[in-house]
Amino acid sequence: MIKFLDLHAQYLGIKPEIDAAIAEVIGDTAFIGGAPVKAFEEQFACFQQAGHCVGVANGTDAIEIALEALALPAGSGVIVPANSFIASSEAVTRSGLRVVFADVDPASYTLDPADVERRITGETRAIVAVHLYGHPCDMDGLGAIARRHGLRIIEDCAQAHGAEYRGRRVGAIGDVGAFSFYPGKNLGAYGDAGAVLTDDADLAKRCRMIANHGRTGKYDHEFEGRNSRLDGLQAAILSAKLRHLDGWVTRRNEVAGRYLRQLAGVGDLVLPSVAPCVRHAFHLFVVRTRFRDSLAEHLAGRGVQTGVHYPVALPRLAAYRHVVQSTEGMFACRADRQLLSLPMGEHLSDADVDAVCDAVASFNWR
């Protein structure tokens, strides 16, 4: 079996570091806040080239807290890509804002700046730029639009740890960035965890207060916030893993390069594209084919695990019937039936990649 993801193998590769990190937190009983969280926040901010990092409970909270800290007027329109996980859009709605879906670029699967601009009205206040699959958005294009229309940019970096746009790590290119450390991410915890990044000190302070009951002191609360804190065990685990993240992303790019060379011209596959100005984090390696379901079944029979990210574009979900955008003919609403994720990660050997490619090539493409 060639696994889609192998977190156990990853653990075994750095077991002494992980075990020591966990033992230290337990020994110090530093379960909420304290030195482990502070250390990780500083390390991750440095790694992502951001001025400030605020650890929170999960990636969805990170987006919600970022939106709340921006203090957008109630009911404001926020543009979200039509192809993403629902967290990108539900955070908008749950913040009392209005979701407006925009189409994605067929090459990168990230927001199409031209379609974003077409969606802007007098009520639009922000853009959620999702660096989907690990490929950074066109931040120059989105940034120019944001400046013309006075919009804020929230970067959803849940799949883009270590990704770069024109030499800058994602997360602090826009106004604020949101990260998830769900276990399967390039940098994953052993449970839920997340972070908010920004270069704005005042915004970071407000995010930290929102995440901790609006607190300025132990029992001094300036406003009502929420309980969304990164715990010490997860922070320590993330610090141990962070030392390896750059190497893991490098290996993911090597795996992707091997796929791209061997699968070029196979069947009707549309392979991932990498813009020349980016470092792709390759959280996922997503191909497109009209034979998606039968190819996945064939690969399973050859011992290759696959995934689908995402089988239903956001405007077509029952949760967004009220948005009434499912019939607009977006590329994202057509491509969702054709997307297939091949195994991707540092756990894959060259022989594993070759075996996946052989299995794909052996499919009956007629």
**How large is the radius of gyration?**
20 Å
Q: State the helical fraction.
A: 25-40%
The biggest beta sheet, please?
Answer: 7 strands, mixed
Order of secondary-structure elements: HHHEHEHEHEHEEEEEHEEHEEHHEH
Q: Report the structural category.
A: alpha/beta
The residue-averaged pLDDT reads 97
Task: List the uncertain runs.
Answer: none
* Strand line-up across the major sheet: 1-9-8-5-4-2-3
Count of DSSP strands: 14
Number of helices: 12
β-strand percent reads 15-25%
**Shape estimate:** globular
Termini distance?
A: 26 Å
Care to describe what's here?
The protein has 366 residues and is an alpha/beta fold. Helices cover 39% and strands 15% of the residues. The protein contains twelve helices and 14 strands. It has helices spanning 7-13, 15-28, 34-47, 59-70, 87-94, 113-119, 139-149, 201-211, 232-263, 292-301, 331-335, 350-361, and strands at residues 52-56, 77-81, 98-102, 124-130, 152-156, 164-165, 168-169, 176-180, 194-198, 215-217, 220-221, 278-279, 285-288, 339-342. The strands form four sheets. Strands 1-9-8-5-4-2-3 form a seven-stranded mixed β-sheet, sandwiched between helices. It is globular, with a radius of gyration of 20 Å. The two termini are 26 Å apart. The relative contact order is 0.16. The model has no long low-confidence stretch (mean pLDDT 97).
